Amino acid sequence: MQPPGTERPIIEFRDVSFTLPSSLGGMQVLSGLNLEIQQGEVLVLLGRSGAGKTTTLKLVNRLLLPTAGEVRVNGQVDGDVIRLRRSIGYVIQEVGLFPHFTVEGNVSLVPKAEGWPRERIGARVQELLQMVGLAAELASRYPHQLSGGQRQRVGVARALAADPAILLMDEPFGALDPLTRDELQREFLILQQRLHKTVVFVTHDLREALRLGSRIALLETGRLVAVLTPEDFLHSNDPRTSAYVKAFADGLDPMGNRGDS
Amino acid sequence: MSIRGHCRRGARDKLQFRRDFRTLRVRHVLFVALVLSLPAFLASCAGSHSDRVVIGSKNFTESLILGEIMAQQIEAHTSLKVERRFYLAGTYICHQAVLAGRIDMYPEYTGTALTAILKHNAVGDEESVYQQVKSEYERRFGLTITPAFGFNDTFAMEIRGEDARRLRIRTLSQAFPFARQWRAGFGYEFMERPDGYRGLAATYGLHFAGPPRTMDLGLLARALKDHQIDIAAGNATDGLIPALDLFVLEDDKHYFPPYEAVPVVRRQTLREHPEVERALAALAGQISDEEMQKLNYAVDGQHRDVTQLVRDFLRAKRLIQ
Amino acid sequence: MNVFQFMMQNRGQVLELTLQHLWLVGISTLFAVLIGVPLGIVIAHRPRLGKPVLAGANIIQTIPSLALFGFLLPLPWLGDRADRLAILALTLYALLPVIRNTFTGIRGVDPAVIEAGRGMGLTDSQLLFQVELPLALSVILSGARVAIVISVGVATIAAAIGAGGLGEFIFRGLAMVNNQVILAGAIPAAVLALAADLGVGWLERRLRPR
């Protein structure tokens, strides 16, 4: 993990607020968010439902636009949104694979849109399938023929296809059973060791945050409450963080270790 | 291993095609469009009647008889096959059909063509109406009006034959002094139309005994015969006129528009088959008012078969063998 | 002679009227799809427009077909030729099922798929042509199927205003009080409607996403 402040942050939130339009209730989802995300780190957005985690994530690839403040990615505020999104991998909980495309078709979506030559795409798909631990034969299968865990692996492969520098993940393992989730978390760590992507990871599960994150950003009702390393988070005296820790107490051993890292 | 690999590749190709087919919208749309427009090509091929002509008619007796006359005349004098499409539901239907080429010809009336199709006012005598209809049909629709059959199926003011002879009157003007003593009976349409009763009364200054009785057309002749009314408005070629000894007063002031029966033919048909024009021309002026009345009565009153009736009629006229 | 012998004997005419009928149905369905699918796409993405558009199409459908023909007859260019008029009326009748099914089909696409697609950087038109339309295709086709079946029926009535087609047999047969002639029009019309329903239905099933 890079020591903070030595380089320009790859993602910056400056005084960002987000309010829903009046037709949808007019609620203020985020207020005064200031956050810097460094290259190569895994920043976990932690918080309960409705805290504004997903909103924060979607501000990065401009699926949502801030109602105040700026969001800078690679130093840029404006610019071609399509270009931006194609340079960011996006993994969501429902996975969202195209049901009428094969695994290969799904994974190769962005490279195809970017006009990569056929052979390069084919080779890349094989490479990615191997990376996420899927058998090569699965390339010609359709999503409905895969298990939930396999589908999310394809989702990750799809997000990594064009080798983006940034990966956005919105509770990607939330819909999976605990065994599969554990497996995928482990594989995520191995992959991250290899690829060193900048990952913004949304979860409400503290154990997952402690296990995967290099820093944890705690959000509460639209405000950033704390940004701490996992160890600091566990041992912090801040009543808000300790409330969170207490709620997950039985999942953690007395030393506050988080499995393997 | 090699066999399984080969099979897997085949399955993949099929899936690949299906995926490409499904995402290639343009191809799909074109395919469907082609299927939908296929009938158009087929229809246009089948539509050109190369060796046959299609004759239409409206759905009342007189029109059927005229259509059959045209059909048998063409069958006898040309080598063309004739297809009959009778009982079409009215003027508009027939007009649309001949415009679209679904039929080649049908019998029409000059007055109807003038008012209902060309949408002009019903003014003019027989000759000027015929010429106007002929030239406008040619210009606007590419339809040719061949020479008229010879009768005028216009409105007929009928009185009992005995009254006509007793009073020695033949025309509507001559009827003027007697009108005040007559009770009149008219159909609903004649009462309503501006070129019906109202105009008639104005033109001839006719005033009847009391307001005219409105009744069903079919009952008028009977009511006249039975002395319930003394004058009725019917059609000039109604079969009951000779049958019940009724007399049609002449419209000497030419109030009623002419309704001369004429064949309406597609110009294209005449061009492709000039023999048709000759065959139809031979029918010109061959049917008088009285003859049409007799033909109508034979079918409506005596229930004779139309085909046989027409054959006998044309033979008697020496138009066919 | 029974109906089928009659139809065989007059097969030229039966075929000609059937083709005319198909032409009326085909061309009007094509127009309805060309207008209705894009319209359906627009309102699927802008639901607020959906209400007036669907309401309008619904009103048109509610008008009895003969009445609609009556309304259109006085129009200048269209009223002159019965087949133009019939095609316009048939197109109008076919609009509602096509628009409504396009709307439903596109809105029925899994929102997660759309979100993933958009997040990946697919443009709106790529989303439309690679995701939304292929996934909605089966539902859109089902709308076209309904449109075709309705059209076959309304086209039969169009003969009343002189547009030709199999209805001509039916009306002539009624005037002649001749059952064979009536059935020579009614049977092919019914067969056409059934065949279209089954044929397009088969296509729908083939294209349904798993």
What does this structure look like?
Chain A has 10 helices and 9 strands. Chain A has 261 residues and is α/β, with parallel strands linked by helices. In chain A, the strands form 2 sheets. Chain A has a 6-stranded mixed sheet with strand order 5-6-7-3-8-9, with helices on both faces. The longest helix of chain A is centred in the C-terminal third of the chain and has 18 residues, at 178-195. Chain A is globular and about 50 Å long. The mean pLDDT of chain A is 91. Helices cover 54% and strands 15% of the residues of chain B. By secondary structure, chain B is an alpha/beta fold. In chain B, strand 1, helix 3 and strand 2 (81-88) form a beta-alpha-beta unit. In chain B, 38% of the residues are buried. Residues 1-17 of chain B have low confidence and may be disordered. Chain C is mainly α and 210 residues long. Chains in contact: A-B, A-C, B-C. Chains A and B meet through loops of A and helix 1 of B.
Average pLDDT score of chain C: 92
Number of strands of chain A: 9
The main sheet of chain C comes to: none
Structure class of chain C: mainly alpha
State the secondary-structure class of chain A.
Answer: alpha/beta
The biggest sheet of chain A, with number of strands, parallel, antiparallel or mixed sense and barrel status, is: 6 strands, mixed
Describe this structure in a few short sentences.
Chain B is an alpha/beta fold.
Question: Can you lay out the helices and strands and say which pair or pack?
Answer:
The complex is a heterotrimer of chains A (261), B (321) and C (210).
Chain A: E1 11-19, E2 28-37, E3 42-46, H1 53-60, E4 68-73, H2 81-86, E5 88-92, H3 103-107, H4 109-113, H5 118-131, H6 148-160, E6 166-170, H7 178-195, E7 198-203, H8 206-212, E8 215-220, E9 223-228, H9 230-235, H10 239-247
Parallel strand pairs in A: 3-7, 3-8, 5-6, 6-7
Antiparallel strand pairs in A: 1-2, 1-4, 8-9
Chain B: H1 2-23, H2 25-47, E1 52-58, H3 61-77, E2 81-88, H4 91-100, E3 105-109, H5 110-117, H6 126-141, E4 143-145, E5 155-160, H7 161-167, H8 172-175, E6 184-186, H9 188-192, H10 194-204, E7 213-214, H11 217-225, E8 231-235, H12 240-243, E9 246-249, E10 261-266, H13 267-272, H14 274-281, H15 289-300, H16 306-316
Parallel strand pairs in B: 1-2, 6-7, 6-8
Antiparallel strand pairs in B: 3-10, 4-10, 5-8, 5-9
Helix pairs in contact in B: 3-14, 3-16, 5-6
Chain C: H1 3-9, H2 11-45, H3 47-62, H4 65-72, H5 76-80, H6 82-107, H7 111-120, H8 124-158, H9 167-176, H10 179-207
